[in-house]
Automatic annotation (TrEMBL), chains A, B:
Keywords: Aminotransferase, Pyridoxal phosphate, Transferase. This is Bifunctional diaminopelargonate synthase. Residues 207-228 are annotated as: Disordered. Its main location: mitochondrion. It comes from Aspergillus cavernicola.
Length: 796, 796
């Protein structure tokens, strides 16, 4: 499945012709338009492409053009000789059915060669209606979508044609097509052109009614065929020069030019008005901004501007950051788009307090069930990871202060966390991270916590290594080596090893010192399980996170201050929190990003509060959930309104987001259940895995990135370490300058990926000296292989 | 335009029959299903309703049922005797065309009476295809949407029928319909039933293929008609008992029951899993939660549970809080839904740093142009008002600290604001409000600012009164009376009055005291212009907000601390900020909520930073913008990455939100331009307005709520004061208990509105002793009138 660039040329005004139904006269309209091109200017070249044609060769649409628009170049790519839908015609023939990507690539190649050969106007005519299946059974509207040609829609002038024309238009619209013109035949009785003319005018889409073509003669003898041909020729020559048709051609040409001009200008206009997130604008030039015309599946269609006579062009660029880690089910996913539209059409907005609607309820139930943590009973909705973490923080602090009887207005309550953590950019959750480059210039930032240094895991020279940072060497000992990634995650074994004991002692001693000697109070333990994302794709030794949780939960007396001698008054049981509420920020790592429903499951820890976002809505729309235990929830119930969690946003639990999330989550759960990733999983069941650490069935760690690639990269000269889990591949590069915000080596690798391979470029992101790649959960093996080749070329 | 309840009865399984196209056999399918009901159980009653029929009476579809399903009740509401689309047939007749709401109401009444008379199965058959226009020219899919009957779609078995069937399905889906079953005729050649069967099975929609009906004889003599009838009867009796058809009936009945069961359970299931925003859950029962099945235009469809044998029912409830102040263009707006789907289909997600896409660029440009404040040059995107205000706060603090050379890590920088302000629930912006019930239980809350008491405006006993609070009497003098609302807003006059001078002196003295005596430092002035929403719909005297801004801008030496003797080094000019950056939180009050593009325009103040959300996306989807001046922007440019605004969210500038916002904003701008609100505006050009205060053309204050109503309410015994601006009506009630979070009087009025009037109930919200009502910008005068009557009954 090689991707294709979207179709766009300055020199060639190319359109796709879709019909509101079969037999609405697409080919007649195509003939009229192609003739009109020549009528306007005899020197101009027009061309007609029928990618897939069914019916007898003689009746084929390209033949019709050859007869009646003799100056037009014509081509048919695939001809099936039965007048039925291509998916049926194709399977009745004895030859190989072209793959969808082959069809796309042939269409692009044909148009491209026409563009290079002086053709100024081209039509690509579909078969049947917009959703008529192509040879492989996929709807044409979906099949041709990556090209995203602007559309000429031939509407239906018959009885019922208003309805079918509008529905066809809507089906194109929800797939992100731009319909640039509608044509149809006059019918004085049904007058569809009048109704539809008004309808499309309101959408700034010109509709051109055409005189109806002569009726086809009933008999098929050669005389009548000749008469038919003459009548048609007379018809065509009378219509081709029509004012409406010629001005439509001008309009279409203008829109093609405008589209390109807009793409040329977008970057500089953006620079003028847009204040970008996380961006130092000083020195930023328009060329640093990439216009994205559309996106489909794993690919952005990025625009490369015109340069010294070269036409600007759109090209497929692999979205290697999973669009800021949000992307799950592919860009431009029509199923998700329809789910969004369904909820928008059913509800719009439902103000949430005091009300309930189906998407919010379904998602709450589905999510609790999916995550499968028995502690988590309640769902609180917000809009993004940052607000969801603010809510989690408020929950945790309240529960702790209530249990331990602290007055937080009189003293500072801190959180326990890890260095390099990131929980969002609102000031409350910024305060949950240690002072750093990111917050030092935020005037109201006041870090409130203690953040542990921790050991990192990486594959280096073929060996999985737990690296103990310098400052922890004395307490935690030397680096450890483990035989496989599965062994790294074999926590039931590791937690009772010497290393586990050392980790726990160090953690216990540190907290004891903070509380008893420094008098600090803590309100919650907050962690991103497994990978600290924004902090630099840091793969934290899961044993450390597990031990930290265990120490906090096993030692409530460490935290309670006033009640150091007795813990008996605290709630007991499997679902009760102990020591501190444990908050897991799974915004990035949750919901299959690392190949599992929850990243907490890697640690064997059930947090008391968990936050999900990003993949939750499959990369479409903002939504965040904060899940909490019944006990945390009860810390907010009282007779007083003021004790409630007085937090909400206008679009809390908005119907569109919840509906899309239900769709996304169901799809991923199905994929998980039906073995969609089994090839990747098998690849990671390594023969060299030490039997001792063989994971229980279904618990192995796996990645979409090939195990061999990861291992080979770990030997590369410029690579310091590498790891892959789920959809994430992280490559840490050796850099003389150390790990600044950007490193030269990482930037170099990024540039190599940007230059791309045979079929596409690769967009990637760099964090310090780390370049990471992240796929969606639906990425194709072929794409990943091509990226593998690029990485091997660049690094090995 | 009276609204109608959605159609739902436990005793009656009612469906709407839509066709994928005209002539696909809707009536034959209806006949089969009605016959099958009787075949299953001879005692069961079925019924068939054709709301609008075209073509000769004899050919009419209800006649067909009478002939071939003799046990079925039939009814046709409107018959037009030409076989064309109803919108054409209707205009060729000499009689009155029924309004769409009349048709809806007749359908509902008919079904209701059938439900009460033992009918267990009913079909409502549409004319033509899903988008075939009704008598008034509106698409049937839109026209019937308020009833939201579950759908039986008759698919098209002809060539091209796959496409038209799927497109028709999609058009229904994006309007929030539930398609519960698809039926179509076998065609062994085209085999559409096979393709569509798979297609719909994947969506859990059962598809039942039916044997094709006998061909109609060509000649029309009575013999052939009789044969035709016999053949049809034979056909019907062979099909009606088919296993597939009978099990479909069972399935449909089951789904009807399940839908009701779900509506019955929703509240208690929600109570089990949902943690509601701003809600004290203690003592909350399931009955306190309202299930909302759908929403359309200004109305929720709320579910009233079954009670002592009474069937549960859906009813239209006016959304009197504009769905938490978000609602602009009506719930379930198909245009907005399609815009959302278009962007979802075109892009999905586009990670924003370094990239640009059309919706984000278009919105940025359109918004800056709409707001029309020359200071505002840059657009920063976030997800909601709270995050947008966090960004505004970071912007303001940085600009001030940079200019005045303050090290904010060493000392506290405060904000200046008003008491009762609200800017969201993330902790950073909570700190921008004074200590109160809302934040006292948030452990990390630390109010950082000074908040002014201020005079309130209200209409009381027919007089517009500026009420000076007790604590300000000494400084500001006695209450003022003004002859009209326009006079209240005549700031150019009032600012130079005695009152203006007193306001300014008081403000100046206060700030001077705070800075010079208490040594406080301030980083920004933050206000909600005109109305402080969450604080209790407080209508702040606009003169006070204007004077506060003027004092801050005219006296930079008040703030700069170290440079008290000279201001010359500060940037000069119309676009430069002076004293403090002025931040306007227009999340609630902006973008036509108060009848104008910006609420800042009422004050004649151009803020340096402005935040918009809520109406921005027409009540569909979270999105927020923070607009800033070039100078503020420049405070973040340097050679250092760390100086940039390091803030962002995953879905920053998400394509779906931006596209919907462009659509929403363009629509409102058009309404503003084309006089959509002129009737409301004229109503507020009061003859008794003192000429002295007559506003300049186009600058008058107006409301959708009638001027007479507001005036009359101001005399009501239980009313303390009232005001209306734009879409907002606020009624402050006298309450012995004072203004707590809820007051008895306000709750009483709310209960009265909930009980509703002849056509609908009214959902409203209470803040303390204030009950407010808020419409969308497209609310119909008829609805508003009915609410007016309710208010008059309750209060006068």
């Amino acid at each position: 499945m090689a991707p294709v660039g979207a179709a766009l040329w300055r020199s060639l005004c190319a359109h796709q012709v879709y019909g509101a139904n079969t037999d609405v006269g697409k080919t007649i309209v195509s003939t009229i338009l192609c003739n009109a091109v020549n009528h306007r200017n005899a020197e101009e070249k027009s061309a007609f492409l029928k990618p897939v044609s069914t019916g007898s060769l003689d009746e084929a649409d390209d033949r019709h053009l050859q007869r009646h628009a003799p100056n037009t170049l014509t081509k048919c790519l695939y001809q099936f000789d039965e007048p039925v839908s291509p998916h049926i015609a194709a399977r009745q023939k004895k030859f190989t059915i072209p793959r969808d990507d082959e069809i796309l690539s042939s269409v692009h190649k044909t148009l491209s060669s026409w563009a290079g050969n002086g053709v100024s106007f081209a039509l690509v005519e579909t078969a049947g209606g917009v959703h008529s299946p192509g040879p492989n059974g996929n709807s044409q509207a979906d099949l041709y979508r990556p090209l995203r040609l602007p559309i000429i829609l031939v509407a239906d002038s018959r009885l019922g044609g208003i309805s079918s024309s509008i529905s066809a238009y809507e089906s194109l619209l929800v797939r992100g097509y731009d319909v640039q013109s509608v044509l149809l035949f006059w019918d004085d009785y049904y007058q569809n052109h009048e109704y539809l003319g008004n309808y499309f005018r309101n959408k700034s889409i010109p509709l051109v009614p055409l005189p109806p073509p002569p009726r086809r003669p009933q008999s098929q003898n050669s005389d009548s065929q000749a008469r038919d041909r003459e009548a048609l020729d007379a018809y065509y020559s009378s219509v081709a020069g029509g004012v409406d048709v010629v001005s439509l051609l001008d309009e279409l040409a203008l829109r093609n030019t405008q589209r390109i001009e807009y793409l040329e200008e977008m970057a500089s206009r953006a620079q003028k008005t847009i204040w970008y997130p996380f961006t130092q604008h000083h020195g930023m030039a328009a060329r640093d901004i990439t216009p994205i015309d559309s996106a489909y599946d794993d690919f952005f269609q990025t625009y490369t501007p015109e340069d010294s006579g070269q036409q600007g062009k759109l090209q497929a660029t692999f979205d290697g950051s999973a669009s800021w880690w949000t992307q799950g089910l592919g860009h431009g996913n029509p199923g998700l788009a329809l789910s969004a539209a369904y909820a928008a059409g059913r509800y719009g907005h439902v103000m949430f307090p005091g009300n309930i609607h189906e998407p919010a309820l379904s998602l709450a139930e589905l999510l609790l069930q999916t995550v499968g943590n028995p502690r988590l009973q309640k769902v609180f909705y917000t809009d993004n990871g940052s607000t969801g973490m603010e809510v989690a923080l408020k929950m945790g602090l309240r529960a702790t202060c209530d249990r331990y009887g602290w007055d937080a207005s009189q003293e500072q309550i801190n959180i326990l966390g890890l260095k390099g953590s990131y929980h969002g950019d609102t000031i409350g959750v910024m305060d949950c991270s240690e002072p750093s480059t990111y917050n030092q210039r935020v005037e109201w930032y006041r870090g409130r916590g203690h953040w542990f240094d921790f050991p990192l895991v990486k594959l280096s020279q073929g060996i999985w290594r737990v690296e103990i940072p310098e400052v922890l060497r004395e307490s935690l000992g030397a680096d450890q080596e483990l035989p496989s990634l599965d062994a790294v995650f074999d926590l039931e074994k590791r937690v009772s090893s010497d290393a586990g004991a050392r980790y726990k002692k160090y953690i216990f001693d540190t907290i004891e010192q903070l509380v008893l000697e420094q008098g600090k109070k803590f309100g919650a333990l907050i962690m991103e399980p497994i990978i600290l994302g924004a902090g630099g794709m840091l793969f934290c030794d899961p044993l450390f996170q597990r031990c930290l949780t265990d120490v906090v939960r096993d030692n409530p007396r460490l935290f309670d201050g006033t009640k150091a001698s007795s813990t008996e008054s605290y709630p007991q049981g499997d679902l009760a929190w102990s020591g501190l509420p444990v908050i897991f920020d799974e915004v990035f790592t949750g919901l299959y990003r690392l190949g599992r429903k929850s990243s907490a499951s890697f640690l064997g820890v059930n947090p008391d509060i968990a936050v999900n976002a990003k993949l939750l809505t499959g990369g479409l729309i903002p939504l965040c959930t904060t899940l909490a235990s019944e006990e945390i929830f009860n810390a907010f119930t009282s007779l007083e309104k003021r004790d409630a969690l007085l937090h909400g946003h206008s679009y809390t639990a908005h119907a569109v987001g919840c509906q899309v999330a239900v769709h996304s989550l169901q799809t991923m759960n199905q994929m998980d259940g039906n073995g969609s990733w089994s090839e990747f999983k098998n690849d990671w069941k390594q023969p060299h895995t030490n039997d001792e650490f063989r994971p229980r069935e279904g618990l192995g760690v796996w990645s979409v990135w090939p195990h061999r690639l990861v291992r080979d990269l770990s030997y590369a000269e410029s690579v310091d370490g590498v790891f892959a889990i789920g959809t994430v591949l992280s490559i840490s590069l050796k850099d003389a300058q150390g790990a600044g915000y950007t490193s030269t080596a990482a930037k170099g690798l990024q540039a190599r990926l940007t230059a791309g391979g045979p079929h596409f470029n690769v967009h990637s992101r760099v964090l310090g000296n780390v370049l990471y790649l992240m796929s969606s959960v639906t990425s194709k093996k072929e794409s990943l292989r091509e990226i593998e080749s690029l990485l091997r070329e660049a690094l090995l």
